[in-house]
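Researcher: Final request for today, and then I'll write up notes for the group meeting. The sequence and the SMILES for adenosine-5'-triphosphate follow.
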Amino acid sequence: MPRHIGDVILDVKNISLSFGGVKALTDISFDVREHEVRAIIGPNGAGKSTLMNILSGLLEPTGGSVTLDGVDIVKDPRAVWSRLGYLPQDFGFYPSLNGAQMLDFLLRLKGVDAPQGRKKLVAELLERVNLTEAAKRKVKTYSGGMRQRLGIAQAIAGNPRLVIVDEPTAGLDPEERQRFYRILAELGRDRIVLLSTHIVEDIATLCPRFAVIRGGRCVTSGSTSEARNRLEERVAEGIVTPEKLEEIRRSHRVTQAVLVEGSMFRTRVQGAPGSQPTSFVQVPPTLEDVYFGVMDESRADDAAHAMNAA
Ligand SMILES: Nc1ncnc2c1ncn2[C@@H]1O[C@H](COP(=O)(O)OP(=O)(O)OP(=O)(O)O)[C@@H](O)[C@H]1O
Ligand SMILES: [Mg+2]
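Model: Predicted protein-adenosine-5'-triphosphate complex:
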């Protein structure tokens, strides 16, 4: 059956998982639609890698379901492995192989079909991730960005329907991050991509939809541009002393305070239009504002629950 933009390809419903009685994921639900690059954002320990491992069929959830093109990943992981490419957070390479040898080895391991011959496929994949010139260099001489591009080359081998990349840009410089995201954007033209990150701003243009997880729970999900638009006229910024910052904290919702010029804080607040502290100016909301606002609300909810439980 032909697929169209908007068709749900990956459907994640109420996924939960406990490690030895400790809940790592609770009731996570979202979907990824045809041609979409979807982002999962969350801080360290939120549960992103755990979720990615479940979606790759490597970990079995305690509850919930995941389907790829209607096939149940949880019940039958082998049925989807050939249609799935995965770049885990800690992807291991053999450092003394060169890029082409490493990729060739990984393709054999995955059992990827290469009707055009494996050598040709390796060359095509390296070309796709801009590593042709580095094909003969040992992987141990690669920069972090080059390694990640080699990792994506193995993930897209065999033309999988779904490519999962777990924090692929951590530690990469801005230029290398942009290069990597360009590759992901291209991939989204003929498959779906699920990307986890804690670098929020990067995904603002790449991903039309996002989901934020914190403490194993989905705290918000939806359209990135709508989430930003909802904050229109509600974000203001000013540069203040530490004393002033403390005063502002008592009357406003401070979502970011970054030390600048040695002892001053560039401070961002969120609140009703026109309610900003004097000397603050209204600024266009960013996805980072969305993220920090949501995290702040979620922490406040936790604190309220803890108080009620006490
Ligand atoms: N095998 C395991 N056994 C027990 N606990 C685990 C295991 N794997 C993960 N956890 C716990 O589950 C939670 C989520 O971990 P996870 O690695 O999925 O987070 P993450 O969002 O990927 O973090 P990071 O941004 O640091 O990569 C953490 O509290 C972690 O300690
Ligand atoms: Mg992780």
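Model: The chain has ten helices and 14 strands. The chain has a mean pLDDT of 91.
Researcher: Thanks, that's everything.
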